[in-house]
Design goal:
Largest sheet: 8 strands, mixed
CATH class: Alpha Beta
Number of domains: 1
Number of helices: 11
Helix content: 25-40%
Number of strands: 8
Order of helices and strands: HHHEHEHEEHEHHEHEHHE
CATH superfamily: Vaccinia Virus protein VP39
Length: about 300
């Protein structure tokens, strides 16, 4: 089962690597605000715009993801930063603007087409401290205790064994190193028709697990200073849901206590130096209402 899921994801993202951004934006991980219908009548659901962040490169932005983990990653000059599921290199290039020429950025992706695309983008930018490695994030091609910061955007929910990924993050982070990861989580049970949808799995929804289970895996992996840096609801439009649900099923889904959220999670590996996080400022708690684009847009 796990290998079939991996094959599905690899196939899906190999196709995405060859598509233009406009096509990708209309997928279940497309860029957009809270209102899923844009002016052209196409639907976008999850991602936020990187365009204002230093280091942003439009050629590397495929319009995928569910948050802005690099914005919250508290990267310092000289850091070694790793992006899990690096795609065309978007987060890597933003991270490189933070870590500077004295640092190093490594993108890891298991889709060959994405690696080729990211390497071409890095070559155009003439970055000599950004590299891309093909590999499975359940078995990272990295040495123990070699990384300061790990980021990832809407990727871990695609991985069958999330415990393995967090164990690998723990292994490769240096003492006091940390991660900032954006991902999709659930509160309440999705209908079976949605859970069994291959398309929604590749689109990050059906691969999501319960928020409490997700946070529990992080705790059980030994991390500390765990908190949610940002959260927002994900509203799937009716026309997509009706591909998998009957009108009666859709009504039950809309009235049930089920929520799909994008969260950006911070956690730290134990070490003598506690850096980068101001624990005097409380993090967002899941369930609190927060504006995800303009005030009132989520109502």
């Amino acid at each position: 089962m796990n290998e079939s899921i991996k094959s599905l994801v690899r196939e899906k993202y190999s196709i995405i690597a060859t598509q233009d951004k406009t096509t990708n934006e209309t997928s279940c991980c497309g860029v957009g605000g809270c209102d899923p219908m844009d002016a052209t009548g196409t639907y976008t659901i999850m991602s936020e715009s990187y365009a204002t962040l230093p280091g942003y490169n439009a050629d590397a932005d495929l319009g995928l993801g569910c948050g802005l983990p690099t914005e919250f990653a508290k990267i310092q000059p000289g850091d070694t930063v790793v992006d899990l599921g690096s795609g065309a290199g978007n987060d890597c290039f933003v991270a490189r603007a933070e870590t500077g020429e004295s640092g190093k950025v490594i993108g890891i992706d298991f889709t060959p087409a994405m690696i080729d695309l990211a390497r071409n983008n890095a070559e155009k930018l003439r970055f000599n401290n950004v590299e891309f490695r093909q590999g499975d994030i359940e078995a990272l091609p990295l040495n123990d205790n070699s990384v300061d910061v790990i980021v990832s955007n809407c990727v871990l929910n695609l991985v069958p064994d999330k415990s393995k990924v967090f164990a690998e993050i723990m292994r490769t982070l240096r003492p006091s190193g940390h991660f900032s990861i954006s991902d999709v989580v659930l509160v309440g049970a999705l209908p079976d028709a949605l859970l069994q949808s291959a398309e929604l799995y590749a689109g990050c929804v059906s691969g999501a697990i319960q928020m409490e289970e997700y946070m529990g895996i992080i705790r059980q992996s030994g991390f500390e200073n765990i908190g949610i840096q940002k959260q927002k609801p994900i509203l799937i439009p009716d026309h997509i849901l009706l591909q998998y649900l009957t009108p009666e099923g859709l009504n039950e889904f809309r009235t049930a206590t089920v929520g799909i959220f994008s969260i950006t999670v911070f956690a730290q590996k134990a070490g003598t130096q506690k850096r980068f996080i101001d624990v005097s400022k409380p993090m967002v708690k899941l369930g609190e209402k927060a504006a995800c684009c303009a005030p009132g847009c989520c109502d």
